[in-house]
């Protein structure tokens, strides 16, 4: 029994020892195969990433972000070499992006055209309007003094500020007696703000030469003389400011501001200086006999007659126009009227119950007038609805405006006789458009007195000087 037990024990030990040895061999095999698999996978991914890094990126890949897949992320985790490849790729992307940005900035700093505007009294050089394809024109001019003659009034100067330009291409059309001759001129200027590194490419230079035709006046247009009567009231400075900034868009113009007063007002002069339109500021008080009447007063008549007197003394050519400061004007009407040979007319909106005052045109000829109040007038038109040639006026030395309320326009046009209806020019698309409006500003009561004790040493003391008192 004892021998058998010993033999059984030894047999059982052998079996146990063999079984354990088999498990250890299997584990080592699995580890070896896993190690080989992992190393093979790493080498494969490293080679794959190296191959990808050597391929050029498409243009779209530079702009758009790549989508990160699970295999893409795994490759970064397994292979240190791929990280180096990725850094190299990102540098390539950054360089491409920088190149794109530089190209964009180069495009931005390409040509910009400009327009040269001249006012009355400026150099007789051409008034040029330059345009370029796909660019915004800027206004360019040298600073010049714009002065007018003086007769009992103020002589003021208006300046035109200068803005810098880059390369420009101009197309010039010169008006001649026989017709229009077009000449194309290319001028290159370098802006001080353009970066030296931003050099235009060949394609940019080609685009710079693609311009649209632009009409350019070869000489100054005929001058305009705008006669504006005014008088002291709460709305005076506001209305002069509004009209002044409209006239500022018109070239070769002299603004005759004539006040119904015995002396000029420094506030009016300061306002006109600030606006910057070439002007003459004069006074022409209403005669005392008309001030005393209880009926309607002929307002603005003495002012306008003073303007006519000024033109007879100082003007030789051009066109005169009575522009009240409470009206509204489309600036295109000023460019149309400046070529008037004798008398020109056009519609005026917001006049009387008809809503408009206008000549009636049929088959290209005037057959009458349309107005809410005819009143036996030969020329039932509004003050803002006609312009007169200076030469035509000077040929009629007795022409003036009568002191007759409601008949000022009719009386003045009658004094220009002989004037036939066939000699009248019709503007604003042959009187089919409205470019001036008789708007009239709402009347405002004078400002109440300022409590100077309560508001002493404040800004209100300065503002108070600008207000009209009873």
Report on the structure:
This protein is α/β, with parallel strands linked by helices. The model is unreliable at 1-14, 57-119 and 121-212 (pLDDT under 50). Helix 1 packs parallel to helix 4 and helix 3 crosses helix 4. The strands form 5 sheets. Strands 3-8-7-6-9-15-11-16 form an 8-stranded mixed sheet, sandwiched between helices. The protein has a 3-stranded antiparallel sheet with strand order 12-13-14, with no helix packed on it. It has 14 helices and 17 strands. The relative contact order is 0.08.
> What is the rounded distance between the termini?
146 Å
Strand content: 15-25%
Outline, from the CA principal axes?
elongated
User: Which structural class fits the helix and strand makeup?
Assistant: alpha/beta
What is the rounded Rg? Answer: 43 Å
Strand order of the largest sheet: 3-8-7-6-9-15-11-16
- The helix tally amounts to 14
Rounded mean pLDDT is 73
- What is the helix content? 25-40%
Number of strands: 17
Largest β-sheet summary? 8 strands, mixed
Spans of at least 5 consecutive residues whose pLDDT stays below 50 are 1-14, 57-119, 121-212
């Amino acid at each position: 029994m004892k021998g058998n037990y010993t033999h059984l024990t030894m047999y059982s030990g052998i079996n146990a020892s063999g079984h354990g040895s088999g498990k250890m061999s299997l584990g080592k095999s699995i580890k070896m195969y896993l190690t080989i698999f992992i190393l093979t996978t790493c080498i494969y991914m490293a080679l794959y990433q190296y191959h990808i890094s050597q391929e050029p990126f498409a243009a779209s890949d530079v702009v758009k972000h790549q989508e990160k897949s699970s295999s893409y992320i795994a490759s970064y985790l397994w292979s240190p070499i791929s990280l180096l490849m990725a850094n190299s790729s990102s540098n390539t992307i950054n360089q491409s992006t920088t190149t794109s940005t530089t190209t964009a900035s180069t495009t931005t700093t390409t040509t910009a055209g400009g327009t040269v505007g001249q006012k009355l009294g400026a150099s007789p050089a051409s008034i040029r309007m330059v345009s370029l394809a796909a660019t915004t024109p800027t206004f360019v001019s040298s600073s010049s003094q714009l002065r007018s003659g003086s007769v009992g009034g103020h002589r003021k100067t208006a300046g035109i500020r200068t803005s810098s330009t880059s390369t420009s291409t101009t197309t010039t059309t010169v008006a001649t007696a026989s017709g229009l001759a077009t000449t194309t001129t290319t001028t290159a200027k370098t802006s001080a703000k353009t970066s030296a590194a931003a050099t235009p490419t060949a394609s940019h230079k080609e685009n710079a030469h693609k311009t649209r035709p632009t009409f350019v006046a070869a000489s100054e247009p005929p001058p305009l003389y705008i006669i504006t009567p005014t008088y002291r009231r709460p709305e005076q400075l506001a209305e002069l400011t509004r009209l002044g900034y409209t006239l500022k868009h018109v070239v070769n113009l002299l603004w005759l501001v004539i006040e119904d007063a015995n002396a000029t007002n420094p506030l009016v002069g300061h306002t006109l200086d600030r606006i910057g339109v070439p002007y003459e500021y004069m006074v022409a008080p209403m005669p005392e006999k008309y001030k005393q009447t209880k009926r309607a007063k002929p307002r603005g008549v003495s002012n306008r007659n003073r303007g006519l007197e000024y033109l007879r003394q100082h003007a030789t050519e051009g066109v005169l126009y009575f522009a009240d400061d409470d009206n509204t004007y489309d600036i295109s009407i000023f460019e149309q009227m400046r070529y008037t040979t004798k008398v020109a007319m056009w519609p005026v909106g917001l006049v009387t119950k008809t809503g408009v005052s206008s000549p009636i045109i049929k088959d290209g000829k005037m057959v009458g007038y349309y107005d809410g109040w005819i009143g036996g007038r030969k020329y039932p038109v509004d003050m803002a609805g006609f312009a007169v040639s200076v030469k035509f006026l000077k040929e009629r030395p007795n022409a003036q405006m009568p002191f007759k309320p409601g008949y000022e326009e009719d009386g003045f046009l009658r004094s220009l006789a002989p004037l036939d209806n066939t000699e009248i020019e019709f503007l604003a698309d042959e009187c089919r458009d409205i470019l001036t409006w008789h708007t009239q500003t709402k009347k405002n009561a004078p400002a109440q007195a300022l409590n100077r004790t309560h508001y002493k040493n404040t800004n209100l003391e300065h503002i108070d000087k600008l207000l009209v008192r009873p």
